[in-house]
C-alpha cells in the first residue's frame, strides 16, 4: 500500500511535464493511476476485511500494515494499516478519483493554461486522501489531513483571476486549518494519555482512556472540532458553498466524495472506542441534526444548481455525522452505507452540473429550460442520482436510508424523547432532501413556462462515461447490497454486537422504516409542490444565524486589532523603540533583584590605587564634556578622552594587552571619525536639538544607577571560584604560551575569536560597500599614472593666515624637486597639501612601526601583544602613510587588496583550525615545535601562532578598508571642493555638474 | 570579592551618558553614545573580574589568584575590536546618509507610519463580488475563458 501511495504522489509530481506533451489527454494517464490502485484494492479486498479488525499491528491475523520508524524519540512513526474502514473509504477515494480525473479530460480545453498544475494537484489530493485513511499514526494522519487542506485551497483558487475564487479558497483554508490545529491539540492530548500515537493501539486502550474522565472528554471534543470543520458542520458550514468557486470536477471529488468525508472518517474511526465520552453524542447528534435541517432549508432557496447541491451536501454531511455519532453497530452499518450511497449519487450530480455548465454556459435555474428533451441521456442519469439522494426505491440511496431509519428507530426506542426528536428531525430533513432533489431536476431539466429551450449541444459519450459508471453503482448495489455489506460488517464488528443486527436489503417487508420513508417522501412532495409559498416564507424569515457574517466580523476584528496594535507599537521612531527596550532592561532586572532579596553590596573598596581615582575623574569629565559639546569634532575628542582613560585603567588594573589594544583602537577610531565626518557641517546640529532632554536624562541616570546596583550586588553574590583560576596552568602547559589572555584568544577560546574575525571581515566589507556603493572598490592605483600635484586639490579649507606666501613657495619647490622623494607617491599630492616634515617622519617611522607590529604579533604568545594589537599597529602605520602621502600613497603602500588580505587571513585561520584533524587531533588543537637556529638560539613555535597571523591579516584588512573608504574614496568624491560643498552624487546628477 | 566603587561609578556615568546620547536624533551623537556605552560595558566586565592583580603573564611561582582575572580580559579584547568595526560601519552609514539625503539625523520611518494609518478596508477581502453562475463566461461552447476573465469586481 506504500507503493500505491508513492505511485500516486510520483505521477502527480511528473504530471505537469506530461501535460506539456499530451495536453488534456494526460488526464487519462492520471486517471489510470488511481484506477490501477482501485484494481489492486479489489484484488486484495478480502485480506483487508477478513482480518481481525481489532488485532494489534503485527499479530498474525491483523490487517496488512507497513511500519517504519520516523521520529522514534517522539513516538511518531510512518505506520500504515489497511483495515475494513480504510478499505471502504479507499473505494470512494480511488474509484471516484479515477472517474473524476477521466471526466476532466473532456471538461478542460487543451488551451487552458495551468491544467498541468491542476491535474497534479488533483492526483496529489487523491494520494493525500489515500494516506489519510490508511495512516495508523495520529501525527502522520494529521500531516495528510493538512495536505488535503492545502490542496483544497489550491484547487478552489484554481480560477486565480477571479476574486471570488481567491477569497473562497482563503476562507476554506482558514476554517479548515483552524479545525485541523484544534484537532492536532486533541490528538496530542490523546497520544500523551495513551502513551502512543498509533491509532490502532489508542483504540485498543480506549476503555482505560475513557475512564480518565474530563481530560479525555476534552481531547475528544478538540479532535471533533477538526472533524466538523472539515465536514462543514455548523458553525463551520459556510466554507463549503464558498468552495463552489472551484471547477466543478473539484467540487465533485473534494467537496462531495472525498475531502469532506475526512471528517466522517475521523468520527467513524474513533466511534468504536470513544462514542461514550461525555461530549461525543451531544456535539455530534445535535450539530448534525441542525446542519441537516439548515442545509436543506438553504438548498431550497438556491437558484444556482451547484449551490443547491452544495447546501444539499452540507445537509447530508450533517446527516452522516448524526448517524455515525450514535455509536451503535446498526447505526455504523447504516452510516457507512449512506456514505457510500452519497459518494455515488452526489459525485454524479456534480458531474451533471459540470456538463450543463460546460454545454450551456450557465447553472442558473432561471435561465435553464428544456434540457430534458435536448439531452435525454443526461436527464435519465440525473433522475436516477437525484432519486437515490431522495431515498426513492429501488436505488441504493433508498437501501441505505432504510437502514438509517431502522437504526434511528432502535435508538429512539432506547433513548426516549431525545431519540424521538432526532427521528422526527431526520424525517423532516429527508423530506427537504426529497424537495431539493426535485428542485434540482425541475430547475435543471424542466421546460419552464414562457422560456425558450436552452441551446444544448450533444454530450460526447466519453464525457458521460464516468457518470454512467457511478449511476450503474447506484442501481446495481440496490439489488446486490450484500457485497458492500460484507465490506462494512468487519468495521461494525468493532462495536459490541447488536441484539437485532440489520442488513442492507431493498425489501424488508412492511416495516416501520418503510412507513417512515413513505411519510417523509410524501412530505417532500408537498414541500416541492408548495415551493412558491415556501420561498415567500423564506424571503420573510431573516437569517438569524449567519455564520459567514460572523466569520467576516471575526476576520475584520483581527485586522483592526492588528492595525491598532501595530500603530501603537510600530511607530517608526527609533528613539521610541529604544526607550521601550531600555525601560524593560532597566525595570525588569531591578525589580527581580529587589524581589529576590539579593545580597546587599558589600566589601566595598574606594579604589585600587589613587591614580585610578584621578583617571576615573578625567573619564567622567570627558563623558560629560561629550554631552555639552556642540561642535562635532569637539564631541569626538571628548569621547576619546574617556577612551584613552580606559587604556590607562586597563594598564593600572594589570591588563597590558587591553591597554595596548585600547590605545591603538582609540587612535585609529579618532582618525576614522575625522575622515568620515569632515564632509558634515562643523556644528553638531543641522536641525534643532532633540527634545525630551529631561526624560532622556532620567532614563540615562536611572539606567546607570541600576547598572551600578546590579553590578555591585552580583559581585557580592559571588560564591564560587572563577573558572579562570585554571587558566594560567592551562595556558602554559596546554597552550605553550605565557600570555594567558593571548592563549585564551587563539587557543582555549579560538572558536569565539574565529567568529569575531568573520564579523570583522563582514563589517569591513560593509564599510567599503556603503562608501563605494558598487562593489568593494578593489581597483589598483599606480603613482606613475597619476599626474603630479593632482590629488586632494583644495578639498579641505586650510587656514589662510598661517599659510604665508613664502611657505607656499617652499612647498612648491619641494613638490617639483625630483631627487628628494621621501614617499613613493608624495609628488601626486597637491603642493599646498604636502608637508616635508610629515613625509620625512613617515619615511623614517613606517618600516619601524611595521616591524614592531610583526614583533607584537609573533611575541604575543608570551608577552603582551598578539594578532589584534599587531594588526592594529600595522594599520596605524598605514594610516600615517595615507595622511602624509594621500590616497595614491596608500595604494602604493599596500599593493594587495584588503579583500584578499582578509580572505587569506580567514583561510589561514580556518586552515589552522582544520589542520589538526589530519594528525588525528581535534579542531583547534595546538602543538609546540621547538627548534634552534644558529645565531637565533633556541626557539619554540606554537602552531596557534598561525591562527594569530590570520587574525593579524584580517585586522590589517579592516583598517585598510576603513582608510580606503572613509579616506581615499571620500577624498576622491570631494576633490576640489570645500567641506561644506555638496559631497553627494544625487545633486550632481540633478545639476549636471560633477566629474 | 571586593567591589571597586570608583570603577562602578565611572561605569555608571559612562552608561548614563551613553544612553542619553543614544536617544538623540543626531546620528553622530548616537554613534558617540554607542562608543561611550561600549566603554562602560568593558569597564563593567573588567570590574567583575575583581581586584587588580599581576598582569596575566605566566610565572611559575605565582598562584593562580595572584593574577588579574584573564577571562574578562579576553572578552574585553574582542569587544574593543568589534566596537571599532561597528564604529567604522556606522561612520560609513552616517556619511552615506549625509551624501544621499543631506541628513545626519534619525528620521521617523514613513513606512511604519503608513502602516499604522492604513484603513481596515481591504479590496481583496472586503469588496463585494457578484455571484458566479458559470465557469464558462461569454462563450457558451468554448470554455477557454477560464483563465482569461480577469478580476470581475
UniProtKB/TrEMBL annotation, chain A:
Membrane topology: Multi-pass membrane protein
Boundaries of every NADH-Ubiquinone oxidoreductase (complex I) chain 5 N-terminal domain copy: 73-118
Tagged with keyword Ion transport: yes
Region (Disordered): 971-995
Domain Na+/H+ antiporter MnhB subunit-related protein: 838-960
Membrane-spanning segments: 84-104, 116-133, 139-158, 170-194, 214-240, 283-300, 307-326, 332-356, 377-400, 420-442, 462-484, 504-530, 574-597, 609-627, 634-653, 659-682, 694-712, 754-773, 840-859, 865-884, 905-929, 941-963
Start and end residues of each MrpA C-terminal/MbhD domain: 618-681
Domain of life assignment: Bacteria
This protein's UniProt keywords: Antiport, Cell membrane, Ion transport, Membrane, Transmembrane, Transmembrane helix, Transport
Every NADH:quinone oxidoreductase/Mrp antiporter transmembrane domain range: 135-411
Major subcellular site: membrane
Residue stretches of biased makeup (Basic and acidic residues): 971-986
Span of domain MrpA C-terminal/MbhE: 694-771
Subcellular location: Cell membrane; Membrane
NCBIfam families cross-referenced by the UniProt entry: PRK12644.1
Entry protein name: Na+/H+ antiporter subunit A
Lineage of producing organism: Bacteria, Bacillati, Actinomycetota, Actinomycetes, Micrococcales
UniProtKB/TrEMBL annotation, chain B:
Compositional bias ranges of the Polar residues kind: 144-153
Coiled coil stretches, renumbered: none
Chief location: membrane
Residues annotated as transmembrane: 6-23, 30-50, 70-95
Membrane topology of this protein: Multi-pass membrane protein
Region annotation (Disordered) ranges: 116-153
Keyword terms: Cell membrane, Membrane, Transmembrane, Transmembrane helix
Alphabetized InterPro entries for the sequence: CPA3_antiporter_subunitC, NUOK/Mnh_C1-like
Acidic residues biased stretches: 122-142
Localization per Swiss-Prot or TrEMBL: Cell membrane
Pfam family, one: Oxidored_q2
Homology family: Belongs to the CPA3 antiporters (TC 2.A.63) subunit C family.
Protein name, UniProt field: Na(+)/H(+) antiporter subunit C
